[in-house]
Amino acid sequence: MAHTEPHAESLESALQVLRDRMGSRWVGGEGAGRAEMLRILHEALGYDKHRANTVIASLIHIDRLHYHPAGEEPSATGGRSPALYGLAGVGGGVPGAGLAVSGGYWQVGPEYE
Length: 113
Known about the structure:
Elements (H helix, E strand, L loop, with lengths): L7 H15 L2 E3 L2 H16 L3 H13 L3 E4 L36 E4 L5
Antiparallel strand pairs: 1-3, 2-3
Helix pairs in contact: 1-2, 2-3
């Protein structure tokens, strides 16, 4: 039986690759940032789309990736964007509906290092 959750070591490796390529803060839309992370994880680590999405979701879950919408104070939501959770059904099933398209930034790694 295959284990589908990434190991902590692979998460940290992926996070380091993202930080090396994107820096600690990537300014832009939520969807564009996710697309960039998918591209980076595919090119640098050979991850397919499913694996890259799983790693990104895991990094968000353990508070190592955060999307901050434009105008949000980072401490206001503890670093998490409400838009990252509960996207199923948002936008009537239209791909990409409900995602921020501009403004804001991705925090890659801990907010304060």
